Amino acid sequence: DGRGAVNPKGLQYYNNLIDELVNHGIQVHITLHHLDLPQILEDEYGGWLSPRIIEDFTAYADVCFREFGDRVATWTTVNQPNIGIVASYDIAIFPPARCSDPFGATKCTAGDSSVEPYIAAHNTLMAHASVVSLYRRKYQ
């Protein structure tokens, strides 16, 4: 559901994958977010449009650092945030496909292209900063 108890089968899957990469001499690089926000967080509070995402994203990163960090060489918080934000909250070609006319690639049914990309960008940067602070304080 985007928070709460972590799926142990999911952790085991990624632990096995990381172990295989390491066993084959591959340096592990993990991206925490690549356009894959849990739908429940979008439905509950608007995902990246809400500052609530900062705490949830930081908690998710904490689990990843704790579970996989001993074998991960490099962490990336958010892949291409500028692309994801514009495509999601300005021109509506990626979920949650929010925009306002005349900006959308298709007919806009929800959103405000003059404001929402900036709100999502702000919350993305704040979540990134929170995760970096957590990593430096607890795992570095």
TrEMBL record:
Pfam families the record matches: Glyco_hydro_1
Organism encoding this protein: Aegilops tauschii subsp. strangulata
UniProt lineage: Eukaryota, Viridiplantae, Streptophyta, Embryophyta, Tracheophyta
Protein name: Uncharacterized protein
Gene Ontology biological-process annotations: carbohydrate metabolic process
InterPro entries given in the database record: GH (IPR017853), Glyco_hydro_1 (IPR001360)
Molecular function via GO: beta-glucosidase activity
Top-rank taxon, per record: Eukaryota
Similarity field: Belongs to the glycosyl hydrolase 1 family.
